[in-house]
Every structure is written in C-alpha cells, then in structure tokens.
Predict the structure.
Amino acid sequence: MSGITAPDRVQRILAVIPWIVHNPGTPLSEIAQRFGLSKEDLRKDLELVFYGVGLYPFTPDVLVEVSFENDCVTINLADYFHRPVRLTHEEALTLLAGGRAVLGRDGSDPEGVLRSAVQKLSAVLGEGEVSAVEVALGPADPRILQVLQQAAEASSVLALSYFSYGRDQATDREVDPYSVLSREGHWYLLAYCHLMEAERLFRVDRVQKAELTGDSFDPPDLISQVGATLSGTSRSVELIGPESISWVADAYPYDVFEQNPDGTVRLVLPVTATPWLERLLLRLDPSTVATDGLSGESLNRVRSAAAQRILNRYLPR
C-alpha cells in the first residue's frame, strides 16, 4: 500500500463504505474491481474499519461491524449512525465538502445513497452550483515539469514513475512526450505510453519521477492541434502585484512573468474556466490587480463575488 498518504486512504475508505452498506453481500473481488483496488488492499481497509471505527466507550452499539462470509462483504453501521444529528452551519458545510470529495473518488456511485445525502444537505444549506467555489489541488513539481518540457521539445523518450489514485500504486513506464499543456490550472503531459501501447494524458502532479532514457522518437503529425483541443478555449489574465504572488509562476502555467522596477511582478496566465480563476484570485494578496487580457476590464468583481458567496455560506441563516 505504499505511495498513498493517510488522508488519501481515509478518503478511499469513506468512498467504499456507503457503497457496501447499500449493496450488502457483494463479493470482495467485485468491490475491488469497482474501486480499482487489489483484494488484499481492500481487505486491509475493511479490517481497519472493523477494528478502528467507533465511539467511546467502544461498546457494540457504537462500533461499525464488517463481516466476511464466503468472501462476500457486509457492513452494519452502529446505532449511532441511525440517530438524527444536529449540526451547526459550519459543521454542515464541512460535511457537504467532504461528501463531495468522496463522490469524486473512483468507484463512487453517482446515484447512490451518498449522492442523495449530499443533495439533501445542499438543499438544506441553500447551496447550489451557482454558489460553488472549488477547492484547489496540488501544483506540479517544477523540476519534473522542466524535465517534461525539455523532453517534449527535444522529442526525447522519458522513463516515468506515475502514481494512479484509482489503482493506488505507482507504475514505471516509458513514454514519448508529445506536448506539455495546461487546463484549469493543472499541467498535463500528452504522450504515447509504451506500457499501454496508446496515447495517454498524464497529470504532471502525479508524476513521481521523470528521467531521460537517451533515446529519441519521431513525433506524429497534428500534435499541436491535439494539444490545443485538450487545453480548451482559453483567455489570458494579467496579474500585477507584490513579489509574494511569484509562487503562481512556480505552481501554474503562465505566458509572461516579469519583475517591475517598483518591486511588483507581472504575470500573464491562460485561463480556461472561471471557477479556477476564482480560486486563484482568492489566494492572492488583496492588493493584486487582475485584468482580463482581452477586454482590459478589471476582474475585482470576480474575486469579490466569490468571496461574498463563501461568506454567505458561513453566515447563520
């Protein structure tokens, strides 16, 4: 089970439990296949639930029961989980965010009990798609990113160690890197994978190691068009702010990065989606000036509207 952090493992377990509760007696092999796990890892996860999930004083009525019969799994929730729970607004919002994160895991049932619970909680909170501000994910390692970009430019074969969250393991493979591109604040590598014998799109922040093999390849035609299609239609955004916003150039794709004589920095970024832009603007120094590259209009209203939606969620109703 190497390569997975404790928070990731907990999130994976939380995605599996509701599905098993709703589908008791399912064979272990079927559950493992659905969630992209090995039977051994799945059994270890469920044994952890059996021995470690419950409330003080750990009597039977506050423990989660996991049973294996003929290699089939059933989970009986403790009585505690059947009692109505009174939540504060902040607790409900935290629960809603956690539920949505779990639904994003591979294998989660998009029409299952968890989806139903998330929809009901969302309705109670008065929260909808219009008011959503998404959570940012981790940026790519700049050293790995540089290796990938250089390899793509030189048509050099790469040896990658790539972590798959679905399979919960890192695999070694050789790839022919065609292009490094961006979409919604993430770097991606478009490449031919020798292991899968097909073209694949790799999330750069999941590449654990990238090394040149010394071999080269002939890139196919139309790669630039494919990369443009995958990147999506984008617009540019200009940021001018204190030196503290320089981290953006290390974390995300950019077209221009300049240091001004007055000590400020200027960044021009490609943006393909407004939710990602909202996330970014909320993380920057408030003195940062954001401008739409095409129209020249200020984007302060985008930042203000996103901040107001977050405040509205936390205000008591």
Notes: Residues 127-138, 224-233 have pLDDT under 50 and may be disordered. The chain has ten helices and twelve strands. Residues 235-314 form a domain with the Alpha-Beta Plaits fold (CATH 3.30.70).
